[in-house]
Design a protein that fits this description.
about 130 residues; mainly alpha
Length: about 130
């Protein structure tokens, strides 16, 4: 279950960080195409992140030592990826060549943080 949370943080963070990752020289276009192919399943990644993050949040609130940042970031990633499905309003993901600004930049930075937290979670012992 912890592996699902870590992988959801990494993949969801990647999907959120695409506007910034497209600005990278030599690999930006390839990452953009990869994200375009993965965009239809973004809601599945968001659902997995929200469910696993919520599960660990409840477990750590009730019986665990404390709340960890892994589950808080997972819940944030899940909410960001499921925003349009939860509220009925479209998310700020329109494609513009001028890069990330405003809310898109904030979500992209949060996506980069989620990638780092997901990688950290892979190397952190569960017990």
């Amino acid at each position: 279950m912890a592996l699902l949370l870590d992988l959801a943080n990494i993949v969801g963070g990647f999907l959120l960080a695409v506007p910034v990752l497209r600005l990278l020289p030599r690999v930006g276009d390839d990452l953009g195409r990869l994200a375009g192919r993965a965009a239809p399943i973004a809601w599945v990644v968001g659902l997995v992140a929200l469910v696993t993050g919520g599960y660990y949040l409840i477990v750590h609130l009730v019986s665990g030592p404390r709340v960890f940042h892994f589950e808080v970031v997972g819940i944030g990633v899940g909410l960001a990826l499921l925003w349009s499905r939860l509220t009925g309003r479209p998310a700020s993901r329109e494609e513009r060549p001028d890069g990330a600004t405003g809310v898109r930049l904030l979500l992209a930075i949060f996506g980069l943080i989620a990638i780092v937290v997901g990688i950290q979670g892979l190397f952190t012992p569960d017990g």
